[in-house]
Amino acid sequence: MATIHMSEGELARDIHAMLAKVQQQGVEIVIERDHRPVAVLKSSSAEPPGRKLSDCIALAIAYEEELGHAPVPDIDFAADVQAGIDLRRDSLEPPPWD
Fold this sequence. Notes:
Layout: E1 3-7, H1 8-13, H2 15-25, E2 28-33, E3 36-41, H3 53-67, H4 77-87
């Protein structure tokens, strides 16, 4: 992936073209102030690492249909699931109204 370094002013002069480069070419832009990086502009369309849960469920169902039994999770499965839950734990309580 190519990286472009540019000042805030350079980015402001042609932001539409720079956004197109980021989106279409996967270019990463380092925005600098006084030759020091202050922000990085990069595409968010890249898939996160790993599989989606829905893909894992579909794969398990396919294995069960093909092999006649469900896959057996490895010994660290429960810990991995708990770690994922802990990373995404959001409050179930709505925010209080003023």
